[in-house]
């Protein structure tokens, strides 16, 4: 008798036939249930066993289990059950797991798909919290201003927007007709970047180029960088010091939006400031999209006396309230 997983009692001629099919279906369902996997170990290459009372002998299409990871994963994951071959563990829609999708001690239901030879996680994981457009993201309501190199830690699961600014260059102190402003710093922006609680960003904040004495070229501003989970690698280049020809703007890479700093070529006696966006110091009060933005992160050239230092870089991290 074939196994009928969608039983319609009215389609049976006898009660015995109905009872037999119900019993076969129940036995089939029980055979798919592997229970909580035992002896789980590993971070990305996970191994586990099956409790003896399940009668497990080999993986069957549709097999169900509960996995309690021993560690947070840091990338794509495989699972080997009962010393079997490692099999990929994927999201419910078939994508590879990403850093932080599995949490140590947090039980997740998984099912084996024989046709694709992969385990599928049956609940949504953090990397699937991708939105189609900005209106689907909760408002960015919290802001941190970073002015020194270090790390930033996500306080909870949240979407993050990162603004990264390089350091402005100093202008050339070249005399009455030969001074140039320093190059403006680059700006790099990453939007709708999902982080789980405890994940960190590593930030390097570029210094402003030091001012110079007469007849000297300006100094470069420092590069600012930001790296993080899932391959995040942002760079906002510092401006180049003003010389007898120009002050070249910095270059940005790794963001969703990358803006080069302004290059200064003015031959006016005082040169002029290189331009790049920079927030005022009261960012936590006004938010990053108000009129609190100001220009000029590089210094002007100096027709007489020393040129001023360029403004140091910074980062602004906006984040949403907790994502459940």
From TrEMBL:
Ranges annotated as biased composition (Polar residues) = 216-233
A Pfam entry, by short name? Gly_rich_2
Name by which UniProt lists this protein: Glycine-rich domain-containing protein
Q: Where is this region: Disordered?
A: 216-239
Question: Could you tell me which residue ranges the Glycine-rich domain spans?
Answer: 150-311
Q: Which InterPro entries match?
A: Gly_rich_dom
């Amino acid at each position: 008798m074939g196994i009928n997983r969608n039983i319609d009692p009215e389609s049976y001629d006898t009660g015995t036939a109905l009872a037999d099919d119900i019993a076969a279906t129940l036995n089939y369902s029980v055979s798919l249930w592997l229970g909580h996997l035992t002896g789980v170990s590993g971070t990305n290459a996970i191994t586990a066993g099956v409790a003896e009372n399940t009668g497990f002998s080999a993986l069957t299409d549709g097999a169900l289990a509960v996995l309690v990871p021993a560690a947070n994963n840091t990338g794509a994951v495989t699972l080997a059950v009962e010393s079997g071959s490692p099999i990929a563990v994927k999201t419910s829609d078939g994508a590879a797991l990403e850093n932080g999708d599995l949490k140590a001690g947090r039980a997740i239901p998984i099912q084996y798909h024989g046709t694709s030879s992969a385990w599928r996680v049956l609940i949504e994981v953090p990397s699937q919290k991708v939105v189609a457009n900005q209106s689907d993201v909760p408002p960015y309501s919290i802001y941190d201003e970073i002015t020194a190199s270090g790390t930033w830690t996500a306080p909870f699961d949240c979407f993050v927007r990162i603004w990264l600014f390089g350091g402005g260059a100093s202008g050339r102190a070249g005399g009455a007709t030969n001074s140039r402003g320093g190059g403006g710093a680059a700006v790099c922006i990453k939007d709708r970047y999902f982080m789980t609680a405890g994940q960190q960003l590593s930030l390097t904040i570029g210094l402003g180029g030091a001012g110079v004495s007469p007849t000297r070229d300006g100094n470069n501003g420092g590069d600012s960088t930001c790296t993080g989970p899932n391959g995040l690698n942002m760079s906002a280049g510092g401006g180049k010091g003003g010389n007898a020809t120009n002050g070249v703007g910095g270059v940005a890479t790794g963001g969703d939006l990358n803006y080069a700093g302004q290059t200064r070529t003015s031959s006016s006696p005082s040169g002029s400031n290189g331009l790049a966006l920079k927030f005022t110091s009261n960012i936590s009060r006004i938010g990053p999209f108000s009129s609190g933005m100001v220009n000029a992160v590089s210094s002007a050239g100096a027709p007489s006396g020393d040129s001023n230092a360029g403004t140091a870089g910074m980062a602004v991290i906006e984040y949403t309230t907790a994502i459940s």
